[in-house]
């Protein structure tokens, strides 16, 4: 395996089928993949099964392997059986309590760490400004940018306090769209001044607080780049996020197999443009053939001279440093005492009462 190919593979965070390590996942790790995302289809019936799976994944390589999940609360909550189920973040928004947001983040982090999960793709810090938004809605803390910023920072602190990496999403803001980027390519015509006043406020706060990862939005922001979604836009990810906002943590793409990207750009162009834009880790969650194609496309792009190897190396080094910090070594046993503790259940019940009485909608979870 060439150094270039292994660096390229290391940029992927992949999904797989089944509740055990699949042959396809084993092959991808052999090529150099070092990040894996779990979905509802992977987690089995018990926390012990989740732990056995994460332990088996981490045993595939002597290098650290990051295991990630979407565990937001509400409908987007991959781990349910045996874990504390939480209402959507809007319920926390109704409390306006940073203390409760921190406790919620700590709860999530404690339960994820107990079964070997290193990285939570949460919190959602999109500002819910559009009641017609089909994909964010009650996944957001609310409609006030300052509130979203304050609670997002607190929840992320709670997660990281338990050794689990937090990830603010979806940069630079998916809250005002009328299309679901799983199904189409949304576009927002807001001015930069509007983005700075609303959408960017929570991200600026998260960056100032040291958020370890930020996930991109598959949304075109015309004022920043009229042609490309944020995930593939150098103007957005390097010009705005890296240079203007000063962010130096890991940038992870939303799933490249969402129709906003795969139907408009394909895997090869998405990988090339994404690396050029400033993405460090690319989520590809479903089809192994696309994962292998992504690795191969990076190798070809470098060999053709379309992509400097230094760009691949820069992203690879940032991902490696992130893994060294957050990828926990596999333990012999899960910490089942951390799951569904009395204080966890009491917090979930308190927030659940707010979720029942407050207005709003949840998007459909996609596993």
Give an overview in words:
The model is unreliable at 358-367 (pLDDT under 50). This protein has a single domain (12-351), classed as TIM Barrel, CATH 3.20.20.300. It contains 14 helices and twelve strands. It is globular, with a radius of gyration of 19 Å. By secondary structure, the chain is α/β, with parallel strands linked by helices.
Task: Give a nutshell description of this structure.
The chain has 367 residues and is α/β, with parallel strands linked by helices.
Pairing-aware structural class of the strands and helices? alpha/beta
The total of helices stands at 14
Order of helices and strands: HEHEHEEEHHEHEEHHEEHEHHEHHH
Quick one: biggest sheet? 5 strands, parallel
| Bulk shape | globular
Protein topology:
Blueprint: H1 3-10, E1 12-14, H2 23-31, E2 35-38, H3 47-58, E3 66-69, E4 71-73, E5 76-77, H4 89-95, H5 98-114, E6 119-120, H6 145-161, E7 167-171, E8 187-188, H7 192-197, H8 200-208, E9 213-216, E10 220-221, H9 234-244, E11 250-252, H10 259-262, H11 266-277, E12 282-284, H12 288-304, H13 309-326, H14 342-357
Parallel strand pairs: 1-2, 1-12, 2-3, 3-6, 7-9, 8-10, 9-11
Antiparallel strand pairs: 4-5
């Amino acid at each position: 395996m060439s150094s270039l190919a292994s660096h390229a593979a290391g940029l992927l965070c992949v999904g797989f089928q089944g509740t055990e390590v699949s042959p396809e996942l084993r092959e991808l790790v052999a090529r150099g993949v070092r990040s894996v995302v779990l979905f509802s289809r992977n987690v089995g019936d018990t926390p012990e099964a989740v732990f056995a799976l994460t332990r088996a994944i981490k045993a595939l390589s002597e290098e650290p392997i990051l295991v990630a999940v979407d565990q937001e609360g509400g409908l987007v909550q991959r781990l349910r059986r045996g874990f504390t189920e939480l209402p959507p973040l809007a319920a926390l928004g109704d409390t306006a309590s940073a203390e409760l947001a921190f406790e919620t983040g700590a709860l999530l982090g404690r339960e994820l760490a107990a079964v070997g999960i290193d990285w939570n793709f949460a919190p959602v810090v999109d500002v819910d400004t559009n009641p017609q938004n089909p994909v964010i809605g009650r996944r957001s803390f609310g409609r006030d940018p300052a509130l979203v910023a304050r609670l997002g920072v607190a929840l992320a602190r709670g997660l990281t306090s338990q050794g689990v990496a937090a990830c603010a999403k979806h940069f630079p803001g998916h809250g005002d769209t009328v299309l679901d980027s799983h199904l189409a390519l949304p576009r927002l015509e807001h001015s930069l001044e509007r983005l700075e006043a609303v959408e960017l406020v929570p991200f600026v706060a998260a960056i100032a607080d040291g958020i370890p990862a930020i996930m991109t939005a598959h949304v075109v922001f015309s004022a920043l780049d009229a042609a490309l979604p944020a995930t593939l836009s150098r103007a957005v990810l390097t010009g705005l996020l890296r240079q203007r906002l000063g962010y130096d943590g890991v940038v992870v793409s939303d799933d490249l197999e969402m129709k906003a990207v795969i139907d408009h750009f394909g895997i090869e162009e998405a990988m090339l443009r994404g690396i050029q834009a400033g993405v460090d880790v690319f989520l590809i969650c479903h089809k192994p053939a696309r994962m292998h194609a992504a690795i191969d496309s990076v190798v070809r792009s470098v060999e053709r001279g379309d992509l400097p190897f230094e760009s691949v190396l820069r992203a690879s080094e940032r991902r490696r440093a992130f893994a060294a910090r957050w990828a926990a070594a596999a333990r012999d046993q899960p910490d089942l005492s951390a799951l569904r503790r009395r204080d966890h259940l009491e917090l979930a019940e308190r927030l659940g009462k707010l979720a029942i009485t407050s207005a709003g909608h949840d998007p459909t979870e996609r596993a």
